[in-house]
Amino acid sequence: MSQTPRAARHPRWIALLVLTGAMLLAPVLACAATSDDSSPDLGKELRLAAMIGDTEAVSDLLDRGVPVDAANEFGKTALMIAVESDDLETVALLLSRGANVNARTVASCTPLTFAAEHGNIGITAILIERGANVHDRTRSGWDPLMIASRYGISDMAEQLLFRGADPKASDRDGRTALMLAAAHGQIEVVDLLIDAGAELESRDKEGETALLIAADAGYWHVVQALLDAGAEVNARDGLGATPLILAVSQGHPDAAKLLLERGANPNLQDEDGTTALMEAVVTDHGGLIRLLLDYRANPALVDRDGRTAADLAEQRGNQEAAALLAQRPGS
Q1: Residue 176 forms beta bridges with which residues?
Q2: Which positions, given as ranges, span the membrane (predicted)?
Q3: Could you give the 3-state DSSP secondary structure of residue 176?
Q4: How far apart are CA 214 and CA 99, in angstroms?
Q5: Average pLDDT over the chain, rounded to whole?
Q6: Is 329 helix (H, G, I), strand (E, B) or coil?
Q7: For the packed helices 121-129 and 88-96, what is the interaxial angle rounded to 10 degrees?
Q8: Rounded to two decimals, what is the model's pTM?
Q9: Cα angle at 318 between 233 and 307, to 5 degrees?
Q10: Residue 269 counted as domain residue
């Protein structure tokens, strides 16, 4: 991994912060609210103005005393709506007028989690600068780093890590940012998280590690990055499956070959006694059968029901698999 400081490698978000920070220097205006001007209807008008980016209307309504954090029935404020609209000017205006940067919806979403979902680096920078909590989570347990990692927004992930986001945190399913990035093949974010100290062997509620998840999805480049970082090549999930068994079961030859080259044991069995070779047979992947046999997969092993890979081939009428196995009946 490169040892170049993050700020030097990815200066774009820092430059955005410098450029947009000046927008927050406008004085906070005193608001003398009246009973009429703070009505729910005017709160709705404020949110609508924020939605369409009408900063003049937003400013006028705030001058009339409409509460800057007036929320709808879902807890969404004008600031959140402006963030969702990728409207940096309105975001800056609302923040300068005292909008709560850590307000929450009924689903516990915050302006920062909305910014992460929409991938707006400049808005993220300005929210963090004004005190947005990088550790706040949605109701599903996702923090902004998890969201950015899931969607592969590497600049944002870099920014959040620089500001103290925790790469070891997990959501309510036990999945970390690294697992979410691995599940979607986000290799650049995977590299960033590994460099930031993400735990390679953390497990979700299904007992899966990032490597098991990447192998199951067939993202060989993520598999390679995780193995290079020291991930356990023969890790097992909650049902005893290994990365190799998962890669083979889903028909991912590149991931399977890489795992074998890195020392994956082709003869490990899951809780049902299933081997990678058996998976290749039942999923009709002849190329993977050949690959596994080349790496000394043992055709004589039996599953929990006493069946060999050849038995499974016969049951399925898979003549290609039967022929391949007949050439090497045991090892």
Answers
A1: 170
A2: none
A3: strand
A4: 41
A5: 89
A6: coil
A7: 10
A8: 0.83
A9: 60
A10: yes
